[in-house]
Amino acid sequence: MSHISAIENLAEQLKNMGEAPTLLQITTKIIYTLPPHLRGFITTWESLPEEEQTIPLLTAKILNEESKNAMFQPQGAYTPSYTYIYVQFYKTQIMRL
Length: 97
Fold this sequence. Notes:
Blueprint (H helix, E strand, L loop, with lengths): L1 H15 L6 H9 L9 H6 L8 H18 L9 H15 L1
C-alpha cells in the first residue's frame, strides 16, 4: 500500500537523521492521514491492545476495510482512490518542507 510505504520511508529518513520515530508515532501518522471514507477505522484500531498494533496488521486491516467499502459503493459513483488522495496529501507535505 503506497500510503503506508511512503510514511515508512519518511520514518526511515528520520531515523537516518537521528530522529527515529516510535512505532506509535508511525501508526498514528498512518491512521490520521487516511482518506475520509476510512476514518471510521480509527476507533477500531485504537480499541486494539497496543501490543497488537503493528504495521503489518494495520496494513491488512486497512486493505480489508477498503475491500468492504468497495462492496457497498454504488455502481457508477465516483470516489477518489486512496492513492489519489494520498498523492495530493503527500504533495502538500512536500510543499511544507
